[in-house]
Please model this.
Amino acid sequence: MKQHFSQRVRGAKRSAIRELLKLTEQPDIISFGGGLPAPESFPNKELAEIAYDELLNNSANVLQYGTTEGSRTLRDAFITWLEPQGIHTTRDELLVTTASQQGLDLLCKAFFDPGDVLFCGLPTYLGAVQAFKLFQIDTVGVLLEDDGMSIEELEAQVAACKAAGKTMKGIYVIPDFQNPSGITLSLEKRKQILDIARREDLLVFEDNPYGHLRFAGESIPSLYSMDTDGRVIMLVTFSKILSAGLRLAVMITSQPDLMDALVRTKQATDLCTSKLTQHLAARYMLEYGLDKHLEDIRPIYREKRNAMIDALEKHMPKGEGIRWTEPDGGLFVWVWLPEGIDAQDMLARAIEQKVAYVPGSAAFVDGSGHNTMRLAFSSSTPEKINEGIRRLASVVKAEIAANKVGTS
Amino acid sequence: MKQHFSQRVRGAKRSAIRELLKLTEQPDIISFGGGLPAPESFPNKELAEIAYDELLNNSANVLQYGTTEGSRTLRDAFITWLEPQGIHTTRDELLVTTASQQGLDLLCKAFFDPGDVLFCGLPTYLGAVQAFKLFQIDTVGVLLEDDGMSIEELEAQVAACKAAGKTMKGIYVIPDFQNPSGITLSLEKRKQILDIARREDLLVFEDNPYGHLRFAGESIPSLYSMDTDGRVIMLVTFSKILSAGLRLAVMITSQPDLMDALVRTKQATDLCTSKLTQHLAARYMLEYGLDKHLEDIRPIYREKRNAMIDALEKHMPKGEGIRWTEPDGGLFVWVWLPEGIDAQDMLARAIEQKVAYVPGSAAFVDGSGHNTMRLAFSSSTPEKINEGIRRLASVVKAEIAANKVGTS
Model:
């Protein structure tokens, strides 16, 4: 039946990592694999009360089709929530999407022809890479430094694309506690990226799932809030700040032309997002407050992050070229292993030792990053994090030893 | 900002009909426009109880990410429900989608390159046409007769596409009470379409939102149940049989290759469908029974359909070339007006008279059908249906009179 496949799915293979990670559902495995929000962060009692009331008393509305643009109640609640963040917007500038993965799908559809160039981090979010590849976008990776994308390399890549006559369309940025690296883009670099985008007439796609989960340090203004000519499109998902199961996000653009294209595209994609889940989020925001909720859940992530950093310091071998990020928020720690080690290859051994992670290489669009891994601290307890890192460290030590033997 | 648009959105314009239909939200307008399920058909109390329980006692599951393939509970419940319909399937053959519009999006992505041919009815479902156009598919319309797609014309179109060297990929069929026409495909023609698909190695996309809303006559077996070599992919949405607001459907294929491509495609599109809405549907099926529910709601639609047919017979002018379908199920009656009348043009006058419908022409991929309109009887009361048809008949009479004056 493969003769029926489109070009866009012909090249792609089922992910080997994904198959390996399925093994991590076994209860005795400590998994740092999936980037899952902490289940104890879900305000389930409040949502249960709201759901009961909405279904009982507002069913002709919440069980019916909604508008493609999204519920007015939710958009209005969102506008109010954004104001103190320096983001001043209106109802017509917001599009509710079936979580941010759909936002990425819509951006690809509306703005990219096959071969168009999109600049992204090295590494960047794997789910975004999958969406970009499906639309045959030419993803050009730009090295991430400790303060985000290398501006020097971005400039060099822009120049190279120009010289090659390529059509450059945009820059994809996850500014805060980036997935997978946990790296945050500095204020100075945000400004420089906006300057380059303006000069080259590029769109900027600012995907910010983790920014509100900052548990230390000072917030940095969003690129959207610093944008002067409407070229930043921002995606804010509810997945990590309220619930991933609601499948809800909001996409923001101040440009009516862009919004019009996105709305038409969404209409052909899934008609509308669930009114029921939209009303759950909207009423939660209005009746309980999302900022109050965020204050409550940030300590959950801080504790887990600290447990992971402590465990890494305690168990991981030193002086072998191993290092890791120490993020002030988000869900992930990123680990660089010694050059000789292939984290994808090592995963099978880690699973034997009942611990799992995501090898970094799939997040590098240039095929590099073989010696990196992403550790999600978000969905384990501090005790499990310590034990999992202990197991992982022993796997790494064995790998280094075997590697030395192998290369001697 | 339009310089950033992809080719696929460049051509498309915001629908004039859609803008007109926004006016129909005014409470004094009787709208036969949107194909909305009857709100009184939603089992809201039962869903409220289930939602409360799931959110209170199963939140770590339903508020978390789910697998791309969909909830096992829902897929298992669906398998059991399909058995008596002659559809024998397994969990691996089902993919839960964010309603059937997403199913169409995934089919386009997985199987169509720009310019590939898809055969569809004249008319066919407007939402499907929008998805097909977004993927630059060459949609070839085949005239619908009283018993469905003209086999003679389908053969002629296949021959023409072959002669032109085009790549033919599939046939899109809405077999029961088709949207927009209300026409049902006969058993004989289902077999003939399967024969042609086999001979030409085409996929068949069987989209069946209305088949379970049959309130008179005998059911006809699905194409999926008669398929002998796995080329039918079936879409069954919950939108009309349980609730449109849950945004849930199931896509079925017996071919692992095709399923694999669809799963990978969905992963890049929205990762997964809401676990919460999946569990609402699954538990409703298990605890209350979907067949029992369907028995309860079919009379609602029968009464509305009868009211509309009665009103058409009572109010519409006879002998002017006006005729309409009399469906045994579904949501729609389809009306052919005299050749000289443009239903899209007439809509503005109808709205002045406080009645609305969907002009048929947008549902014809060849641009014909200017003298047709779709009337949804599903979301009005019998009284409103009678009054709305009375208003509509007066608009039609005036149009015929003006037309005669105009052409004399």
In short: The first strand of chain A starts at residue 30 and ends at 31. Chain A has two domains: 2-42+297-407, 44-291. The first helix of chain A runs from residue 7 to 10. Chain A has a mean pLDDT of 94.
